[in-house]
Amino acid sequence: MVWTPRVTVAAIIERDGAFLMIEEHTNDGVRLSQPAGHLEPGESLVEAAIRETMEETAHPFTPSGWMGTYLWCIGSDPRRDDTYLRFTFVGSVGEPCNRALDPDVVRAFWITADELRARRPEHRSPLVMRCIDDYLAMQASGNGWLPLSTQHTEPFSAAAR
């Protein structure tokens, strides 16, 4: 068996003390999450975050920094259970576009960290609140996030395969 983590991206978007979140249908019912999703073939991590935010919120996302990388295993054996490697970006959004959201998304909405914390049983994963708490801690400490220039994607080439 080959172990392959699932590579995902997420966007942390804060405006006036509230965070842009989504409610979406999952196998466990309707859950809350940041705009997030899987990296697709041929994309950079930044491109994936921009695409996923548009698909799930209808807002154009402008990333301004890279917040961190998170590893989460569902289950107790990472060799057999699902493992997610999440790259999290921060940024801002423009006004929503007139487009349908992904079929599983119920709605996109703004919520404060305290309101989100009170709804912890509805979170899609433990990464939802962890990323918000990390964002707030970085903001409070003044340490901030890494510049987007620290993310590198080599051009795709047949010779590299």
Main features:
161 residues; alpha+beta; Nucleoside Triphosphate Pyrophosphohydrolase; seven-stranded mixed β-sheet; 3 helices; 37% strand; NudJ
Mean pLDDT: 91
Figure out the total of helices.
Answer: 3
What's the name of the CATH homologous superfamily? Answer: Nucleoside Triphosphate Pyrophosphohydrolase
- By DSSP, the count of extended strands is 7
State the assembly state of the protein chains.
single chain
Report the CATH topology name. Nucleoside Triphosphate Pyrophosphohydrolase
Largest sheet: 7 strands, mixed
- What is the global morphology? globular
Q: Quickly give the structural class.
A: alpha+beta
Explained architecture:
The protein has 161 residues and is an alpha+beta fold. It has one domain (6-149): Alpha-Beta Complex (Nucleoside Triphosphate Pyrophosphohydrolase). 21% of the residues lie in helices and 37% in strands. It has three helices and seven strands, in the order E-E-E-E-H-E-E-E-H-H. The chain has helices spanning 45-57, 113-118, 127-141, and strands at residues 6-15, 18-26, 29-33, 36-38, 61-73, 83-93, 105-112. Strands 1, 2, 3, 4, 5, 6 and 7 form a seven-stranded mixed sheet that branches. The longest helix is centred in the C-terminal third of the chain and has 15 residues, at 127-141. The two termini are 22 Å apart. The relative contact order is 0.24. The mean pLDDT is 91.
